[in-house]
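Regression check, NDP case 344:
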Amino acid sequence: MSNQPGIFSSAVNLDLGGASQPAPGDAPAGAAGDDAVHDVVIVGSGPAGYTAAIYTARANLNPVLLAGSVTAGGELMNTTEVENYPGFIDGIMGPDLMNNMQQQAERFGADIRYEDVVSVALEGEVKTVTIEDGTVLKARAVIISTGSEYRKLGLEDEERLSGHGVSWCATCDGFFFKGQNIAVIGGGDSAIEEATFLTKFADKVTLIVRRDEFRASEIMRQRALDDPKIEIRWNSRVTGINGENKVESLDLVDTVTGEPSQLAVTGLFVAIGSDPRVGLVKDQLELTAENTIAVDGRTSTTSLPGVFAAGDVVDPTYRQAITAAASGCVAAVDVEHYLAALDS
Ligand code: NDP
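Current build output:
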């Protein structure tokens, strides 16, 4: 799962530097307020957000990071072993990696708050970030690192049976499928990672792939092909999820022959990729054709001055923990330069 916009609860009074005029879109009269104008507020707490917090904290910019109330840490909180993040010879569990980043940011004084952002006003010299209880944070610079969210199949029964056999998180829900026959949809690295993890619990995992080849990397493809508990259904699309109160079977159709079939399973894990989480900013920032936030070249500079973006929300291509972290570093350095130029 992905990082949701996040929050705060207490105010930190800072030197306001050159930018302390409230902007249009500030707190409505009577709303709980935070009178300080922070140097930088970071929205989102995946590798990009935490890395931006580490760098801006070390630059004495006293970042406030709004981490999300239930989604702090982002997608890696739902991942098992991360084998390709440099520096960990034997790999590291996704949640451990994120907890380490969070603690590293706090060690340098980052103010991490676990609430959800409901709106942002990004125009003008002072931006505002409003959280669920109506509190408004003001900031001279904002970093948007809201990550991405799981793609859905768009089937009628998907929502109804969500939590009743339909899941997007093997590490969260895999345990409930001990000794059962389940399915995973998708042909990318995520789907294979989920399927492999689920073989620890399930008797059999059917991997449903819509084409006749994987999108996943070679090492992951081989892992799926070599696993005796994973059966692959190529050229298959799920057209229906059946079950009164819990998943009982899936309707499938062969994408080549058009032949329908049914698959008896008690669980369905959807791992068909994710989309950038741009809901908060889509009406204020320029987006790309891929629906990511548009940034200028290799920078994190968006279409509005003082607003920077990092991580999966700007990246339609690489989408790795390490590239998100690097992108967070870029945003932090860009913020440093931006604020220094304002103050000079
Ligand atoms: P991807 O976009 O890479 O793969 C999505 C998969 O789902 C594709 O096989 C795609 O099929 C399929 N798909 C998409 N929509 C549907 C649909 N409606 N019905 C059925 N199938 C569908 O997403 P991932 O989440 O797998 O990976 C995202 C990024 O994260 C990648 O860069 C990946 O490398 C990385 N990652 C790396 C890991 C690792 O290194 N261990 C682990 C997990 C992720 P099609 O191919 O036909 O489009």
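Comparison notes: Helices lie at 47-58, 94-107, 156-160, 170-173, 189-198, 218-226, 321-343. DSSP finds seven helices and 19 strands in the chain. No diff flagged against the previous build.
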